[in-house]
Structures are given as C-alpha cells and as structure tokens.
Amino acid sequence: MRMLGVLGGMGPLASAEFMRALTLETPARLDQDHIPTVLWSDPRVPDRTLARNHGGPDPLPALLRGIRGLEAAGCGAIAIPCNTAHGWFDAMQAATSLPILHIVDAASADLARQGVTTGRIGLMGTTATLAMRLYQERMGIECLTPSAAMMESHVMPAVGLVKANRVAEAYAPLAEVARSLHAEGAAAVVLGCTEIPLGIAAGPALEFPVVDTVAALARAAIAWALAERGRDG
C-alpha cells in the first residue's frame, strides 16, 4: 500500500492531532495494520489568513515545496489538516498528479455520518476561510457564520490561543460561539479550522452535533487507504 502524505505544520498541534485521530480510528490489530504515513510538518508556511486578508506573503510556494517532498517520499495521496490552506487547493492539485483529499468533502461526509442531511449548518473558521467561502461554495448548503464582532472578540483570539498551546483557555469563547450558532437554528456546527476542535475538546462536550474537521479528514484518509489496500489484494 502506498503511503499517505500529510502536508502539515499549519499549525503543528493540529497536525499532531490529525496523526492521533488517524491512528485511533484505523481498524488495526497490530502495527502492520496501520497506514504508512509521511508527515511534512512545516510551520514556516506563511500565515494563510494574513495572505488572504491583509496582503501577507503568499503561502503557495511553501505548500508546493511540501507537496514535492511528499511526492519524493513516494506518497500516493495527500491530506492537509488546515482548512484555510484549502483556499489554494486548485493550485496545489494542478501542481501534482497525487489526489489531495479535500477537507470540505470530508466534513460533508461527516455530517451525513451523523445524520445531518437537511437544514442550515453553523460554520466556524478563520476569517479567511469564511471570506473565501470554501464551505459555502463546495457544500452548496446554507451556512450560518459568526458575526464580525464575534470573529474578532472570540473566534480568532481562540485560534491564536490554541496555536500558542493555551488550549484550555480557548474552550469558553469557542463554545459560546458554537452555542450561539445552534441557537440561531443550525442543525450542526462545522468546526472549520483545525485549531477549533482542539479548543472545543478541552471542555465539556457540546449538546448538539459538531463536525471535527481534523477527525473527518482522518476518516477520509482511512477510507482512501482501505481502498488502496483492497486494490492491492
């Protein structure tokens, strides 16, 4: 079976959590049943939100450098545990023959897994992810998003807390935003930034369905690996 490539480092803790989810959710009895994986964790990739919203350095060259490294390692597919990086998805996919597993497709599959097939959903993410409409356009579903004030006062500071390894402090503001979206009529809330599930997991479980996009992408990677294993006999 060909190796899975993980283009990570955005941020490093989210990449580590992806590897943890990939390992825990793989149906395995022993080491050899697990998925061979190469993690390219490069925190030097320029900030995606700064690039999209404030004219910061373009992350694409660093993303492509990682893809070339994963190609050279012999990987058969690539997963990117960073939602905002998918704003450059088309350019990345055009630069490689390897399939890149799209995190929005993984989130859609997880909504279906939880039985959420109709109604509006809540969407939390970075300001860049929301501005690029990554979920709204690809999922084709009505999304309720936090207000600009809540993004500034709650979501983006909480994302920063997780990136600074102050994960427990991120729970309260993130949970407040998720509950507000549910109160507005969201049937489920998609945690569309890979730092957000880490913050939400630091406190009591929420009372409604949520999509952990780190775990959802891990499940998509496992599905790819099992299909590859089936083709290999």
Order of helices and strands: EHEHHEHEHEHHEHHEHEH
Strand arrangement, major sheet: 2-1-3-4
Helix count equals 11
The stretches of 5 or more residues where confidence is low (pLDDT under 50) are none
- Beta strand %: 5-15%
The dominant shape is globular
Number of strands: 8
Provide the gyration radius in Å.
Answer: 17 Å
Distance between the termini: 10 Å
| Helix content percent band | 40-55%
Mean pLDDT over the residues: 96
Structural class: alpha/beta
Main sheet properties: 4 strands, parallel
Can you walk through the features of this model?
The protein is α/β, with parallel strands linked by helices and 233 residues long. The protein has 11 helices and 8 strands. The protein has helices at residues 12-25, 48-54, 60-72, 89-94, 103-113, 127-132, 134-139, 148-163, 167-183, 196-200, 213-231; strands at residues 3-8, 37-41, 75-79, 100-101, 121-124, 143-144, 189-191, 210-212. It has a 4-stranded parallel sheet, sandwiched between helices. Helix 5 (103-113) packs across helix 11. The chain is globular and about 50 Å long. The mean pLDDT is 96.
